[in-house]
Amino acid sequence: MNNTEKKMTFKDYAVVSSLLFGLFFGAGNLIFPLHLGQLAGHNWGPAALGFLVTGVLLPLLSVLAIAITRAKGVYDVGLPLGTGFALTFMVLIHATIGPLFGTPRTATVAYEVGLKPFLGAGNSWGLLLFSALFFGASFAFSYRENDILSNVGKVLNPLFLALLTLVFVVAFASPLGSTASAPVTVAYSNFSNALTNGFLEGYNTMDALAGLAFGVTVVTAIQQMGQKDPKSVSLVTAKSGFFSMGAVALIYLLLILLGAMSLGQFKLSPEGGTAFTQIVNAYAGPVGQAVLATLLTVTCLTTAVGLVAAFAQDFHNHFPKVSYHVWLFLSCLASFLTANFGLETIIAWSTPMLMFLYPLSMVLILLSVFSPLFKRDGVVYLTVVVCTVVPAFFDMIVAFPKVVSQSHVGLAVAGMRSYLPLASIGMSWAVPALVGLVVGLVLHFVRRSNLPELVED
């Protein structure tokens, strides 16, 4: 039997990079940076810098975390803290970016921004029918695991890029206004505020969480290309991640600029979907709206395919009595049901979960990337996560809708949280996490230095 691995060509790397790009770039990746540009106005620079940290650098690090630790998914990333934590963390991540919030959002954004303007605001059945067709297509595209690479990397993604390039060419050839004179909202009135709020806005993309969850899908696709050795799979993952996230960064910058320029003709929109609709209609009317509807449907479908497949693959791996196809069906069905609550409700309830899960994911990603320095010692993981989880939980309670945040419990939590550093900007977890890291590293190196003495005794 020939065990020689296939040598990866430039075309192979391009296909894997395209797969990663297609899986990452979905519903929020178009509307959130566009809205950020409108919020930041002429302060778009520091806002973009903050957004790129959580919207590009962190997802890239999540891919590298998978590569460096040779993990197959989000479960392996949490494993240094024990199987119980790893399983709980996996379920929370997949529930958040999957059937509860992330996957339903792909359908609602495509419908609300792309198709609904054609149907009218009074239409009551449009979302129901569209989401049924959308998740039916997601199920079909991801039914055969061997076809995910081909469907996303070779078919859907190039179509999306072609349509988005057309939008950028038209918009920058004839700009709606100047970024230098674009007005600024109060929250982005200076450099530090713009940087911080851009950083927090990047949470909404959910890409750092998705990067952990997509690990199993990406690893499976690379193995199907003839790479069997874990080291080779890790290297291909890392190289492809740099290419794909570089493309994402470029598109984010262009979208932020496009949002800032749009203020030359439009007022600040309530969200990025409305802004996108206004911009394309200003340039091309109904034809532009048709292009936008196609663009959003394609990009949201690529992400939905990756999300439902990753959910089914991970859950089948850990609960093998239920087949991949049954988990896939359950994911699509639950996403369809949640989608029909509407985009506004989904965003309102997803934000608190992101305030809780993003800090945990950030510290686990960074610990995974730098784990060779401390031998992936579980003690370091434990001290950092314990110091992160409580303030992150406080941030979550405060971010909930008023029914929770203004309750007696919510007000009590807000009072305790106010004593933590950086709580006013939604990052009360940062200083405790740093303290936990210092304590964990000290314990690690003290134990390591005492190990020879223990052995001699």
From TrEMBL:
What Pfam families is this protein classified in?
Branch_AA_trans
Q: Does the keyword Iron-sulfur apply?
A: no
Q: Which GO terms describe its biological process?
A: isoleucine transport; L-leucine transport
Question: Which keywords accompany this UniProt record?
Answer: Amino-acid transport, Cell membrane, Membrane, Transmembrane, Transmembrane helix, Transport
Give the membrane topology. Answer: Multi-pass membrane protein
Q: Which residues cross the membrane?
A: 12-32, 44-67, 79-102, 122-143, 155-174, 203-222, 242-263, 290-312, 324-343, 355-374, 379-400, 420-446
UniProt superkingdom: Bacteria
GO terms for cellular component: plasma membrane
GO terms for molecular function, please? L-isoleucine transmembrane transporter activity; L-leucine transmembrane transporter activity; L-valine transmembrane transporter activity
Chief place where the protein resides: membrane
According to its UniProt record, where is this protein located? Cell membrane
Family that this chain belongs to:
Belongs to the branched chain amino acid transporter family.
What's the stated role of this polypeptide? Component of the transport system for branched-chain amino acids.
| Protein name stated in the entry | Branched-chain amino acid transport system carrier protein
The gene it comes from is brnQ
